[in-house]
Specification:
By secondary structure, the protein is α+β, with helices and mostly antiparallel strands. It starts with 5 loop residues before the first strand and ends in an 18-residue tail after the last helix. Helix 1 packs antiparallel against helix 4 (70-79). It has one domain (6-79). It is built from 4 helices and 3 strands. The chain has helices at 41-50, 53-59, 63-68, 70-79, and strands at residues 6-7, 17-23, 36-40. The protein is 34% helix and 14% strand. A 3-stranded antiparallel sheet has the order 1-2-3. The structure holds zinc ion (ZN) (2 copies). This is HNH endonuclease. It comes from Alkalicoccobacillus porphyridii. GO terms for molecular function: endonuclease activity; nucleic acid binding; zinc ion binding.
Amino acid sequence: MTKNTLGQCELCLREKVKRTVHHLLPKQKGGTNEQTALLCIPCHKQIHAQYSNTELAARLTSIKELQEDEAIRRFLKWIRKQPGQTIPRTRRSNEKL
Ligand SMILES: [Zn+2]
Ligand SMILES: [Zn+2]
């Protein structure tokens, strides 16, 4: 465990959640290690369940763009009501995290 593990998710803004590193611009698409965001596990899973790396690279390369996306917005509205410790089920997809 790193000291960064617990904190605020940059997408849903819930606090004291376990976070993982998301590459805003996937490395295969020319992203660098600086273009990352710390997201809670449900947010991170949701993004990858909803979108392929190609779609993410094409139009969702910032937290702001993600927050304004219609499908993500609906998810955020829901996740914000969930306690930080809950890891809800995510819709299945063949995309890897
Ligand atoms: Zn989150
Ligand atoms: Zn990711």
